Every structure is written in C-alpha cells, then in structure tokens.
Amino acid sequence: MFSFKWGFRFMQKEFLSLPSRIIIALFVIGLILLPLFTQDPYILRIFTLACIFAIFAASWDFLAGYVGQISFGHALFFGIGAYSTAILNLRLDLPHWMTIVLGAVVAVVAGLLVGFPALRLKGPYLGLVTLAFPVMLTGIIFLFPDFTGGELGISGIARLASTRQQEYYIAVIVMITLITVLWKITVSKYGIIFHAIREDEIAVRASGINTVRYKLTAFCLSGFYAGVAGGLYAHYLRIAGPGLLDILMSFQVIIWTILGGIATIYGPVVGVFVLYPLLEYMRVVPQYRMLLFTIIVLLLVHFMPEGIANWVRDMLEKECPRCKERNVFTRRECRYCYAQIATKK
Amino acid sequence: MIENILVRGLLNSCVYAMIAIGFSLIFGVARIINLSHTAFYMVAAYGIFLFNVQAGFDPILSIVLSILVVSALGVLSYRYLIDPVRERETSTLIVTIAIALMMQEIIFILFGGHYRGAVALISGHTTLIGVRVTNQYILTLAVVMTALIIVWYLLMKTRLGIAIRAAAQDREIANLMGVDVRKVAIHTMTIAVVLAALAGAMVAPIYVLEPHMWINPLVIILAIVILGGLGSIKGTFISAFILGFTEVLVVIFIPGGAFLKVTFALALMVIILLIRPEGLFGVFLEGER
Amino acid sequence: MFRHRWSILSLLILVICILLLVATGCDDSPVDVDEVDEGEEANFLKVGIVGPMGFVQGDHSWYGAELAKEEINAAGGINVGDKNYMIQTVMVDTNELQSVDDAVSAVERAIAVDDVDLFIGGFRTEAVLPMTEVAVDNNKIFMIAGAADRSLLEGRVDVDYDRYKYLFRIAPPNNIELVTLSFILLNEVANSVRAELGIDTPRVAILMEMLTWNEPLVQIAQQQIPAMGMEVVGVWRPSATATDISTELTEIQSQGAHIIYMANSGPVAITYGRQWGELEIPACSVGLSVENQKAGYLEATGGYGEYDMSLNTYGRAAATEKSIPFWDTFMETYDDTPSHSAGTYDALYLIKDAIENIGTIDSEALAEEIANADYEGALGRVVFDEVHDVTWGPGFVTGFSNQWQDGELVAVWPYEWSPAEGVEITYQGAVPYKIPPRVIDYWKDR
After folding, report:
1. Does the complex come out with an ipTM higher than 0.90?
2. pTM for this prediction
3. For chain C, which chains pass the contact test of at least 3 CB pairs under 8 Å?
4. For B74, which of A131, C5, C248, C399 is 20 to 30 Å away at the CA?
C-alpha cells in the first residue's frame, strides 16, 4: 500500500490537486529551508518573531473566531505567559521547555479566571470587560515592583538557544506543531461544537451539550497557546515587561487575525506572516511606516473583507455545487463527482 | 475631605460622562463599538493647540474651528470607512482601530511625541468650599454641564432625539416605522463626535497632550459604557459618576496608591458586571443575545 | 471569469516581484565600508543613533550626535595615521516607547542592512536590555546615553566581561547616584528655606510617580530626610500618566509642606508643573523632572513651571570649558535645551579620541581603549568605572541642577557646593537658587 505509485497518486490526487495545499506545503518547506539560503540574523529575527506572534494570533482566532468569545484583552494571556516564564526561569532556574510549559499553565489558570465571568457576559460586554483585565494586571505589576520589576520588567532570562538558527528552528517547529494541532481540533467533532456555540449557543445547549464546559475549555486552550507564545517571546528577547500588556498588543492580534482570515486558524498565520514583515519592510520610511500600515489595513479590509487567506483561496479554488468539495479554479468539472462547476459566481 | 471629594469627583465624572455618552449613542443607534471615539477627542485637543498656540487665533475661535474640523472628520470617517463595513462586526472592529491609529500617527508626524499643553481660557484659581480649583476646571464643569443638559433635551424632546432613541431600542422596528436609520446614524455620529470634541477642547488646557492620550480615556469610557448598560444613556451617566468618584476616592484615601485608580475603577466594573451581566440599566434584547 | 482571475493573480504576483526586487535592492545599497579604496576616498565610521525618534529622548540623542558629527567632520574627521574616517550617523528609530520587539528589530536591521559600526543612545530600560544583547551578539559597541538603570551594566559587564565589554554608559549618572545627587539638591533648597524663611525643620512632601526607577528614592528619602533635619509629611505616588494631581497638591498644601521633593519622568511632570503653579501651592519644588530639562517646559505648563528646579546632565555653567559653548550651540541650532539624551555629543567625541589613540575601529580594541578613557567633555570629566559606568563625583561628572528663572533655564548648582570640608565647588556661570516669591509671601508671616 505504501508503494511509490501509491505515494505518487496520493500526492497527485490529494495534495497537488488544490493550490491552497501546495501553498501551505511550499510555505512549510520554505520556512524549514530558509536558513540554508540566508544566515542574515535580521531576517531570521523577523521570522522567529513572526512564528511567535502567529501562535499568539491563532490563539485569539480560536477563541474569537470559533467560539465567538471576542476578547479585546488577549495580551493578558501573552503577558502572563511571559511573566511567569521569566519568574520561573530566574527564581527557580528551570530549563526552558519547562518554564515555557509552566508559564503556559499559569496562563491557562488565567484563562479560567477570565473564563468564569465570561460565562455570564455576552457579545460586546465580554469584549469590553476583557479589555479591562490587562490594564488591571498592569496596575498589579506596578504594585509589586520587587517581584515584577515594575516598568523595567524582568530581565536576565536565559536565552532560548545558543545560536540564532537554533532559536529560529525552535520557533518554527513549535509554531507548525501547535498550529497543526489547533487546526486538527477545529476540524474535529469538538471543533463543530465550538463553532456551533458561536452561531447559536442556546440551540447547542438545547441539544444537550454542556456549553459551559466547552467555553471554559476554549478559554484554557486559548490561554495555553497565548502563554506558550509569551514564554517563547520572553526567552527570545530575554525580557518580560509591562509593554506586553499594552492595549496596542491586544489590538495588534485582532488586526492580524481578521486581516488574515478569521475562524480558519491558518488565517492568522497568513496575517502575521504578511503584515509583520510588511511593517518591518516599511522601515525604509521610518516616520511614516505606521501611517502607511494603517492605510494598508483600511484598504485590505475594504477589498478583502474575508481576510487575505480566504480571498486568495476563493481566487484559486471553487466549491463544487453538488458535493461541496473544493477544486482548482481552472477545472470545469468536479474532481470527485464530475459535476459541472458553474463558471460564474 | 468631603468637599474635596465632591468637587474633584464632580469634575472627573462630568468629563467622562460627556465622552461616554457619545460612545453610548453610537453603539445604541448603529451597533458599532467605535474604538476610535477617544481619538476624536484627542484630535480636538490638538486642534486647540494648533489654532491657538501655534497659529495664534483667538481661543474661542480655535475651539469652534477645532470642533468643526473634528466633526467633519468624524462624519466623513463614518460615512466612507465605517458605514460600508457596518454589517460585519469584525471589520468594523479593525476599521475603528485603524482610524484611531491613523489619527495617532498623523498627530505624531505633525507634532512629534513631545508633551504639549494648551493655554487656559481663563487662568488662575478659585477656592470653592475650601478646595482650590483652577478656573479652567470650573469653566470646563460649566460647559460640560450645559452640554449634557442640551443633549438631554435633544434626546428627550426633539423629533431627532425620539428617532435616535427608537433606533437604539430596536433598529428594525424603527426602520419599519419610517425612521431613516442610516440618516439617524449619521446624525448620531455627528452629535457624538461634537461631544467628544467639546470635551477634548475643554480639557486641552488641563491635561497633557501627547499622541497616545486617547488610550487611557478609551479604557475608562468603555468601562463606563458597559457598566451603565450598552445603549442606555441614563446608565452611562450614572456609571460615569460611579467610576469618576471611585477614582477620586482612591487618590484621596490611598495617597501612595494613586496609580491604582484605574485598576480600582475597572475592578469595581468587573464585580458589578458579575452581579448584573447586562450592566446597571442595560436590557437584554432577545434577538441579540 | 477565468480571465478576470488570471489578471488579478498575475497583477498580484507582479506587485510581489517588484516589492522583492526593491527589497533586495535596498539590502545591497549601502556601500561596504571596508571595500572603499584608501587614498582620495574617505572611509566612513557608521554610528547608529538609537532612540525613539519624534520623542524628546530620541530627538535629543540625534541632535547631540549630529552636532558632534558636523563639528568633527568639518575639522577633517577622525585621523588615524594614513587613514581618515568621516563620521556617518544612521538614525535608528526604535519606537521603543511603544514596542520592545520593534526596538530590537531596528537595532538588528541597523547591523544587517545599514552596516553600522557602533551604537549610541537608548532610553527605555525595558528596550535597552534586549537591544544591547543584540549589539554584543555582533560585537558592536553600544554606548548608552539616556537609560539610567544600574542593572544595564552591573551584573553584566562584571559577570561576563568577554561578552559585555562593549557596553558603556556616558549619561546620565546611574539611578543610585541620581539618588545621592537629588539629596544634595534637596539639602541645598532646605538650607535656603532655613536661611530665608527662618524655618528650622522644613516639612517635605514626597511626590513621585509610581515607577520602579524612583522606588529607591522613595525608600531612602523616608529614612534620610529626618536625619537631614527635615520632616516628611507624606508620600504621594500618582501614575506617570496622571492628568490631574490637584487632589495630591491640595493635600500637600494642607499638610503644610515647605518643599515638594519630586521625581517624575512621564507626562505627569507637565501636569505637576502646571498645577503646582496655577494652584499657587506655597512650597519649593526640587528633584528630578525629565520635562523640566526641555526648553518647551514653560510653554507646556502655561508659564506655571517658573521656579521649578530639577537636576540635569547639562547646564549653562562651566563644568569644563566645553560646557557653555555646547549649551549655546545646541540652543542656537535646535532651539531647545540639551537633556541627558544629548550625551551622544560627548559620546561621539570620546569615541573619536579613542579611535585616534589606537588607530583602528576594531570593536574589541576600541572597547579596551574606551574603558580606560579619561575625557573632558561638555558634561564633565568622563572616566568609566569597573562596570563601564560613568563615574559620578566631584572632579568627575557631577551633573547640574537647573531652575527656571524669568523664563530662562539657568544653572543653580554646583554653586558654593562643599562636598567635603574645605572644598567648595562653583561652576562658572551658575547663579544662586531662588525661592518662589509666593512661597516667601506665604510663609514669611507665619
């Protein structure tokens, strides 16, 4: 069964048949092979940070896109992850992987703490209440400067790895693994339940599903992902400061995700990998780069309201009207059921 | 002590109320969380600085000019940027964030990140029931009170006000009753932006101007609006007073912890919302749960 | 429909290709310094000026460096035997007040794309830490001019010298010495109050923004002030971004304070200056205010900041013969008074001297040379201590204290300062400290 011929046919039928899959494969291969082409520490840094932020953005997408719990204060989990990682590393001198995982666990606890009030709150109320949490945490951080370093943050954290390439590979591998797992969750049976909660929570409850448990799980999982991202960030930049809890940090993740394509998991990755290097690229005009960025954001929202990922996918692929499978846009009949695919939208 | 709390609390609360009511109105009528609302307030404050301090115009003229400019900006941004994507909740989110960031950046390019201050309309200070208050503060209080009374009259007694309240209660039914909801939304946006601009113009000589001055008020305004119940004018007004006074109480009773005033106000909001998830005066609209 | 899609896609691919081309073009554009032939063509020393541009800290870093660059280049650049280096400044806009990762990327970019040889500047400690990590990763010298925290050097240079030997700080004196300095100033003001108002134990109100950098100040002040013959009436810690501190000020007045001892770096410094004057709080104001150091302070406070006094890195008084000319040139060129971030000026001159001494721009040799530097600059005599921090004290860098008098920022300290028995230091150009008239009026009759 695992013959060469089978492998070739599998590639041809399942993999090469859809442009979006080819793009994803090329993207993953490209990320892994990048250090072979360039050793430039600057480029490696941009992509390492992009990987970290991609995890962060995906965590927001899961919570907001799938479960519909739009949070305006997602930096809370990122910041808690970074701070706990930093404190664990400095005070207890634990190894990296352990501090990052433990930091993420602390972020899970924070997810539970935010999740409980969130159960009672609906729609905009939830979003606006979550906005308050990072601000409150900032106040608490300034209250205990001996422990948290106040506005100076916690520094002197161990480096993620000894060389830039190793750090890059850690970030890339963690990102690909975590995103794949999250994507698998969202396309599983549980993913459908999460999605249903967003669409109509009362109907889901009426079907005998314990929505409370699912919503809390969503908060925990999202907190875990954001916490991992925060932990990686702390070890990478070797500092965890109150800047991580800024409102702009929370807003940034919203911009990345929505422009990438909300409720897709791969959308936020696309958003980060397009927008983060773009913002970096605009350093050629340092004074105007944020202004240009906001203009690009407004244009993208106008022309690609579904997000970049979905827009590209709709450009390259068409849905078969009969069996709902996707086909490359050049095909005139479905590759599964041979139904005619309408040429006009 | 008591008189200090009263005077300061009143001032703090009224400025908050003025900005928050605009936000609340827009949410009610157009169902938009306008995260760029306080950015208009910032632009108005910088407008005073530009016209009065840099161009040397008369202060009153500067205030009028800056309110005009800001309301034009507000209406244009609503008409051409927000309204086209209004139906899509996620898009409005980033459009409003982008508008706010854009204004922040334009101000940064024009004025730099330096801390600025505008000249007070009337200088000096007065002793009010034993508390020293700067005259600009008293003027601000008077203007804000007047503005709030006018808005109340507008909302309660005029045809436009009834239309706004009807649209806020139920957009669809109001539409069926012959209210041009789109037009009402634009009128509401104008009123909201004028209120924010007026607040900005009045506090420009009191507060420090810098390109990120919109962020802190935004947090408090959002807290006030949801604490009062989204779309409820009465609720917004009352919760502005609750949070405004909370801040002042924290500053007075915990002198070493004055930096915690926002934290306390927000914590209070979260606790109240845990007890009443729809805010103090909010209503659960069945169709929108 | 197909054609439509194809055209959009091809357009998109075309745009991406153009962007990529431009990007690679940008990467290649800077001339590689080492490849320029000797002889007629000058070599360039590329200096990255690090800071949040558009904000006062970044701007002053840039101004100070530009001033030094113009002067040095006009005088023929840096002469090293048969070679001649012209200084080229590269603006590294870090945006550090908003985003730490942005700041670090900016430094990384300066090394990778702009090929910068060394860095000067850096203001926000939270961002300077990771920025200096990148610099030492690449064996680049990073001379801090702006961030005061001692931990930027201590615990790094002394622990892992081989890695961190490229780090230095020229300005301001570190946060521990700022404490000492501000106590000296408080004492000077207290002496004036004692002499002119006849109050033996002046009452001091501590008003400092709630941040970590001034935490030691608050702690020590509460113990030290009684020992200095004064009385503490209370501690107030507003937020660094507070827009109204009239409650605190009213409270301070009702406690009967004669002196307000402050340490503010955020926008609250403006709020403070304005409300202190407008509410006519009858207390002298002394301490550390970043905003007070700027020429725009009076305007920003609506004129109410008059008589406010703060320590500073520069002042219009002769610590050395370079001090007053630097102050005047800076004023003339940029219409602003130099703050501590303008330490880039002296940093560039110091580096020039070091390069001329050893005849190479090799980072490692240069770091060793700078560590042993003994340089007379506009801010005083610069000698680095064992962790490469600028040495503070009489005969070295002392700092200044400036007060707003009649709309001018004048140096009022060191004026008849006696750091030890029989020693008295007065920098030429310094004038006596003035107690605000309203304080005299208020307390004279009581």
Report:
1. no
2. 0.89
3. A, B
4. A131
